[in-house]
Amino acid sequence: MNTARKVDWIKIFVTEGLDGDPSRMQFTETDIVATVEEATASGIPVQAHALGDEGAQAAIRAGVRSIEHGSYMTDTTLAIMNGKGVYEPYRDRGRASYVSQATAACS
Ligand SMILES: [Zn+2]
Asked: Model pTM greater than 0.85?
């Protein structure tokens, strides 16, 4: 991980995007945990590109600070996020009126 460039956040592409299979994880949970541990050791928070529910939950368990997109997350996952204070800055599709506790904290 190249932290010498002094980035504010590291984004990991946990799931494929809408041009692929958004439910398919591109990293194992072990990989995500390792990424979060390395970034945290450098004081850098991690955000997860995660559209599917399984990937989002793996990223949350791994300790990411933010889920990007979250297009297919379930209410259960949203509740877990709120309980852990994981940010959800915006969502690509659906639930447009949903504003999570974490989103409110970002504004
Ligand atoms: Zn993304």
From this structure: no
